[in-house]
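#struct-queue
[09:14] JT: dropping the first one here, sequence first, then the structure tokens:
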Amino acid sequence: MNKGKSFREGVQAAMPTALGYISIGLACGIIAAPYLNPLEMGLMSFLVYAGSAQFAMLSLIAVQASVVDIALTVFLINLRLGLLSLHASTIFRKETIWQNIGLGSLLTDETYGVLMGERVHQDYISPSWMHGNNVISYLAWALGTVIGTILGGLLPNPENFGLDFALVGMFVGIFASQFYAMLHRIKLKKLLTILLVVGFTFFILTMFVSKSLAVLFATLIGCTVGVMIND
């Protein structure tokens, strides 16, 4: 029976992501410093654990938005993670429901990217490996945000440094790496077709719905097109 790679190997695979999370977490914490103390930032990171949503939360807190507005915004931004978890669960379909809940609860865009990269080279991926991938990233993010909040009090007007763009930069890097890996399995023409469909759909939908919903629906349509043109 193939036991797959261990928790430790999952941690090793996620180290680039974890280091990136620390740096982005520092940026997030620095931006949060005028509005939250380190304990509050730590609780946000442990309970919400969503970089883009936390940056959005800080913007809403800064303008004193209502709790309902903040909760709805976070919900919409994180809807895409339901899709990622749904696909990830197909890789662990033989595991228990509790294993899948645990894996899905800490899944992020970046840990999903690491998983897909591993999937290119491994037919079987163990839950232990995935837990290692998830947990080290989770702890690194929380640590980075707390330290960033502590340091943030030393910087006047931290938003002027454009630190909130750090998450976008990391996502671009993950996407580029994943795109390169997929080229070994999927024809370039198909990949470009899917990307064009997603991009065009997103552009059209933003005229009618919020950007968060546009991302969700554009992703669903892209997945549908990918299945339809698959050999």
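[09:21] JT: and here's the second one, same format:
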Amino acid sequence: MVKLTSKFIEKKCTQLKSSKSVSKTNKKQDLWKLTHLYMNGMFINEIGNFAACKNLKVIYLQDNNISRIEHLHFAINLTHLYLQHNKISKLENLDCLQNLRKLYIGYNYICVVEGLENLEKLTELHIENQILSSGETLCFEPRSAITLSKSLKKLYISGNRMTTLNDIANFYELEILDAKNNLIEDIEDLTQTISTLPLLRELYMNGNPVVQKHRYKESLIANSNTLANLDEKNVSEISRRFLQVFKEKHFKQSAKKITVPLTDDIANSLNLPPAFKKSISRAIFQHPGPKLSITVTSAMGELQPQTFPPWKTASAIKSLKDNHITPRPFWRDVNNRKETNKVDSLIHNKSVMLPPI
């Protein structure tokens, strides 16, 4: 078991300097002068008290066996912290690092980005390829997300089984986002999130199912005013402008209501001469009275409201049978039929005077 302490640091620094020059030795009181601490690959499994190194700005602790972040309260000047390739399962005890700018915590066991609500100067977060249990996915705690949204410029979250990027919506300062090799497949959800990142310049989504979706690149480019590199391919300003204009036109067309009269649809389906079509439309739809609203799908795929009168109000329906309305064909006019019957009866009774030959 190796514990990081002031004594351990003094010993390692002495060994390092003595290997370079036998005349140089390290004194304990000189530890406060250290600004960079190289303790990577030292088989360290616990962070102890090394507050004597109070002027540290960069700490290298990657490639060890550290399971917990602790005893860093003294390092108020720290700007870079390297903790990748350890066994850390929780982000904690980082509140005092208010000058921290870059945090490297990839290849650990973290599933929740938390404990960063006081790191208001953090600009880079490397938290890629966490070792997660079955069913787990990386997510952001809301308070930490709010703080990061105001300062973070670079975010690396690849290989974390993420299915959505909703947690990083409205990260106003984010310029580079690496989310490769996750499980993101909803193109609409992704597009919505990307549209809330006003400064995003580089986006990497390789290895996600969403890259196989129809018009994946076009959708992202059209919804971002700053994206210059998508999946390691440059995005030209001409392409962006073209896709944005296309999006605006498509939106206007889809929002426009296309009114198709139901009278015309029915009349056209009967394949009748124009005069008959016009009379049929009047017979069905111009009768006053209550109307029944229906919905018809137009050729553009939109649902348009249309109306037509119920059978009770149709002008051709006037007969009752067993107290029930008996519908009749609307193209037959009852009054005309009665007049025809009168003429027929007069002809049979020889009461009609025909013009001379």
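[09:30] RK: nice, looked through the second one.
[09:31] RK: Residues 21-25, 291-317, 346-357 have pLDDT under 50 and may be disordered.
[09:31] JT: good to know. The two ends are 132 Å apart (CA to CA).
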